[in-house]
């Protein structure tokens, strides 16, 4: 054997396949990014709903007063680590 | 140029085509994906039944973080629809969520036709009649159901102010028929109902001599290509 090439696959572990905001696959990236992975991470709320980080941040910033989870309307609270 | 809003709208369109909700239809206008035309069929068992109500949906680059502006272009008589066609519906205002898409918007408006909310009236007369003289309300609705069948071209004849609205110009009838109406009739081609025949020969052949029926259909399938070529 003269050499070998390693191949790895990865996958976000989320309950859903698509981000509810942009409707793109979680294994892909949000519409503002080009490459999926650590640069376009997923984030969870305490309500257990999950979105692309960039998508939920844009939503929260577009809200002037309250900032509900787009899925369940509970106040959005980041789930720690 | 693709932007997040435009990409999301392409997804919305794809979803609407792959998984079309009953009785509603929508498509981007020919040259602008930010402006959609839509049709809502009046729901069964409501005074709006059989109406074909046309709407426009206008998106901004902030979609889906901001809701689109939705307006009835067909004349409407409903407690929650303003005279200019704009709609008083919480999910299009303060209860908007970025998880909604065109499909969700259209089905929500369809259910608003089903269940008006007379407590937040946009049309006082409609709200009052709805509450107090339901029969009179239904009469008024029946009139706008009839009007909804008229061609869009004639619609603004008696209402000069609407002519200024250039959205109407984009609402070309051809576009409405090909993009919006046809999907609703497609299922009829799939499953003819020979019990209420409009064409006796076709119904008879369909029931008794399927092979002859298919032969005849094949002929008009071929003719349909020639027609397109001539146009």
Automatic annotation (TrEMBL), chain A:
Check the record and name the InterPro entries matching this protein.
Answer: RING-box_E3_Ubiquitin_Ligase (IPR051031), RING-H2_APC11 (IPR024991), Znf_RING (IPR001841), Znf_RING/FYVE/PHD (IPR013083)
Q: Which GO terms describe its biological process?
A: anaphase-promoting complex-dependent catabolic process; cell division
Per the record, the pathway is: Protein modification; protein ubiquitination
The UniProt record lists the RING-type domain at 30-73
GO cellular-component terms in the record? anaphase-promoting complex
SUPFAM superfamilies (UniProt xref)? RING/U-box
Gene3D superfamilies according to UniProt? Zinc/RING finger domain, C3HC4 (zinc finger) (3.30.40.10)
Chief localization: nucleus
Q: Which Pfam families match?
A: zf-ANAPC11
Record GO terms (molecular function): cullin family protein binding; ubiquitin protein ligase activity; zinc ion binding
- Entry's family note: Belongs to the RING-box family.
Subunit text: The mammalian APC/C is composed at least of 14 distinct subunits ANAPC1, ANAPC2, CDC27/APC3, ANAPC4, ANAPC5, CDC16/APC6, ANAPC7, CDC23/APC8, ANAPC10, ANAPC11, CDC26/APC12, ANAPC13, ANAPC15 and ANAPC16 that assemble into a complex of at least 19 chains with a combined molecular mass of around 1.2 MDa; APC/C interacts with FZR1 and FBXO5. Interacts with the cullin domain of ANAPC2. Interacts with UBE2D2.
This protein is called Anaphase-promoting complex subunit 11
Task: Show the taxonomic lineage.
Answer: Eukaryota, Metazoa, Spiralia, Lophotrochozoa, Mollusca
From TrEMBL, chain B:
* Annotated GO biological process: DNA repair
- The EC designation for this entry is 2.3.2.23
Highest taxon above the source species: Eukaryota
Give the matching CDD domains: UBCc_UBE2A_2B
Task: Cite the UBC core domain residue spans from the record.
Answer: 4-150
Gene3D superfamilies in the record, alphabetically?
Answer: Ubiquitin Conjugating Enzyme
Q: Where is the active site?
A: 88 (glycyl thioester intermediate)
**Keywords, comma-separated and alphabetical:** ATP-binding, Nucleotide-binding, Transferase, Ubl conjugation pathway
Could you state a single Gene Ontology molecular function term?
ubiquitin conjugating enzyme activity
Stretches for region Disordered: 1-27
Q: Which family does it belong to?
A: Belongs to the ubiquitin-conjugating enzyme family.
Protein's name in the database: E2 ubiquitin-conjugating enzyme
Species in which this protein is naturally found: Elysia crispata (lettuce slug)
């Amino acid at each position: 054997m003269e050499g070998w090439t390693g191949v790895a696959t990865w996958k976000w572990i989320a309950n859903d396949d698509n981000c509810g905001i942009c409707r793109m696959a979680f294994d892909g990236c949000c519409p503002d990014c080009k490459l999926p992975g650590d640069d376009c991470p997923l984030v969870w709320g305490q309500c257990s709903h999950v979105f692309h980080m960039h998508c939920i941040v844009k939503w929260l910033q577009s809200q002037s007063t309250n900032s509900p989870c787009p899925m369940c309307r509970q106040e959005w609270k980041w789930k720690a680590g | 140029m693709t932007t997040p809003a435009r990409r999301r709208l392409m997804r919305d369109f794809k979803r609407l085509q792959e998984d079309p909700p009953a009785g509603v239809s929508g498509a981007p206008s020919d040259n602008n994906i930010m402006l959609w035309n839509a049709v809502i069929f009046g729901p069964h068992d409501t005074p709006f039944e059989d109406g074909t109500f046309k709407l426009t949906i206008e998106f901004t680059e902030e979609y889906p973080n901001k809701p689109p502006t939705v307006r009835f272009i067909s004349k409407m008589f409903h407690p929650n629809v303003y005279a200019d066609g704009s709609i008083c519906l919480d999910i299009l205002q303060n209860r908007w969520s970025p998880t909604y898409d065109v499909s969700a918007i259209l089905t929500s408006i369809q259910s608003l036709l089903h269940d008006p909310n007379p407590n937040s009236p946009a049309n006082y007369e409609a709200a009052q009649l709805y509450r107090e003289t339901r029969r009179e309300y239904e009469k008024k609705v029946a009139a706008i159901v009839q009007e909804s069948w008229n061609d869009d071209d004639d619609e603004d004849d008696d209402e000069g102010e609407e002519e200024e609205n250039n959205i109407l110009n984009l609402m070309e009838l051809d576009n409405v028929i090909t993009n919006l109406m046809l999907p609703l009739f497609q299922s009829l081609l799939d499953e003819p109902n020979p019990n209420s025949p409009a064409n006796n020969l076709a119904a008879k052949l369909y029931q008794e001599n399927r092979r002859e029926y298919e032969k005849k259909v094949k002929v008009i399938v071929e003719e349909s290509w020639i027609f397109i070529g001539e146009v």
